[in-house]
Amino acid sequence: MKILLIGDIFSAAGREMIENHLDEIRTKHGINFIVANGENIAHGNGITTNYYKFLLEHHVNVVTLGNHSFANHDIYNFIDDAKNLVRPLNYPGNVPGQGYVTLRYNNLTVTVFQVMGRTFMNSSLDCPFQKTEELLNNVKSDLYICDFHAEATSEKIAYGHHFDGRVNIIVGTHTHVQTNDAHLLPNGTMYMTDLGMTGSLDSVIGVESSLIIKKFLTGLPVRHVPCDKGRKQLNGLVVEINDISHKVTNFEIINMVK
């Protein structure tokens, strides 16, 4: 089984890369299952019904979100009915939506879930470590895939080692910068600190560079306008898993620039 994990899809530039190049990647690598982070797909801030359907139409099996899960108000109109959409599992209380989804692929059950880090993020979140323990104890599956949406590399790495051998694939999202540390942990978990971003390469993590430079030079707030011109990238990771042993047998970083 070959699984493609796609980093944060950002605005029109990200959608363009999915529209024009995802089928090419699927065919080239023989992809069977796709997980994509879509929390920035709607103009860099949240997701809408139409963009959720857009991803499903392009063969994405599960769409994950993050700290911008509820940034676009349209999310409230469909999140509870969206069977292939996952928001952070460790949101407190009765937050709409689901923190994980279990799907069948051939004879395998695949559970995809997301947790959000708390370092430099939202301190009101439940503990991502504890919520993952609860999931593993209560949801039986052949494969577990985690999108750890977090800022701090140390928090992501610690999480990876803690669940090494218990979660098959742990990949980070949120920073929009692809890391060069994809590797198998000692007990067999596929780990990568951040998948990167699918969107504008000639930008500051998806936003017009001049605006962010102004912010750093003046200290004044600026409106984040997505950059949709110039070179574009599609970042992600392909992971091959043995259908019988459920072990990772191969992986390849995706960093397509167009």
Question: Radius of gyration over alpha carbons?
Answer: 17 Å
Low confidence ranges: none
Structural class: alpha/beta
One letter per element, helices H and strands E, the order comes to EEHEHEEEEHEHEEEEHEE
Q: How would you state the average pLDDT, rounded?
A: 97
Estimate the strand proportion. Answer: 25-35%
Distance between the termini: 28 Å
**C-alpha geometry:** globular
- Main beta sheet: 8 strands, mixed
What is the helix fraction of residues, given as a range? Answer: 10-25%
Number of helices: 5
Q: Based on DSSP secondary structure assignment, what is the total number of beta strands? A: 14
Walkthrough of the structure:
Strands 1, 2, 3, 4, 5, 12, 13 and 14 form an eight-stranded mixed beta sheet that branches. The chain is α/β, with parallel strands linked by helices and 258 residues long. Helices cover 23% and strands 28% of the residues. The longest helix is centred in the first third of the chain and has 19 residues. The mean pLDDT is 97.
How would you summarize the topology of this molecule?
Elements: E1 2-6, E2 8-9, H1 11-29, E3 33-37, H2 49-57, E4 62-64, E5 85-86, E6 100-105, E7 108-116, H3 128-138, E8 143-149, H4 153-162, E9 169-173, E10 183-184, E11 190-192, E12 197-200, H5 209-218, E13 232-241, E14 248-257
Parallel strand pairs: 1-3, 2-12, 3-4, 4-5, 7-8, 8-9, 9-11
Antiparallel strand pairs: 1-13, 6-7, 10-11, 12-13, 13-14
